């Protein structure tokens, strides 16, 4: 082998090694809007121990799901339901679907400073209630269950945000009379207790993460899944208003 060929071979080998190394050091996360801030906190904590570059994209679960089936290059998909991650497993686009948390919900009104219960009992005839769009957001589906179970809410016009974060914004800006929102947003914004009612576990939203298939699987994705089982990660999730849980990791099974 002459020197020119040997030199070219070495350059190519170095390039391929660098490409694989760079890929393995990159972690690309897709996250439902309700969990975005919590995941950002988790990533910051994770990076203190792991030298990875992490990118984060947020939208409603339905929008992210459509991006993934069209080839968006994510490593992990933190959905606000179990359905889409399981569908990705069934379609051969994900290796695993893992339950990582239960999201809590609340009814919130920024128009009262005194007593939320009184506000609920005196809603105007033409009341407006903000929810996430159930066509794209699992929290919107859960919100419709709440409305169906509470007669005083059934006559309200539903104002649908593109995701649960937008539904919270509508409510906080008082463009609606009240909203059915993620409890995590209530905690993040330090909403006074008089302005909201935490809903019981009947309305908890089971949230799963999908480990997506890539041509070159990211080492960081597996590291991050392991990190989520740590006491520190579970504490962050619980303090953000969720019930953290990682019950078993079985290939192709949504817990």
**The CATH homology group name of the largest domain:** Periplasmic binding protein-like II
- By DSSP (H or I, 4+ residues per run), the number of helices equals 10
Sheet with the most strands: spatial strand order: 2-1-3-10-4-11
**Percentage of residues in helical conformation:** 40-55%
Overall pLDDT metric? 85
Q: What is the name of the CATH architecture of the largest domain?
A: 3-Layer(aba) Sandwich
CATH class of the largest domain: Alpha Beta
Count of the separate structural domains? 2
Beta percentage is 15-25%
Rg, rounded, reads 22 Å
Structural class label? alpha/beta
Report the major sheet: 6 strands, mixed
Q: What is the fold named in CATH at topology level of the largest domain? A: D-Maltodextrin-Binding Protein, domain 2
Instruction: Label the overall shape.
Output: elongated
* Uncertain ranges: 5-23, 247-255
Task: Output the helix-strand order.
Answer: HEHEHEHEEHEHEHEHEEHHE
CA(first)-CA(last) distance: 56 Å
Number of strands: 11
Distinctive features:
D-Maltodextrin-Binding Protein, domain 2, six-stranded mixed β-sheet, 255 residues
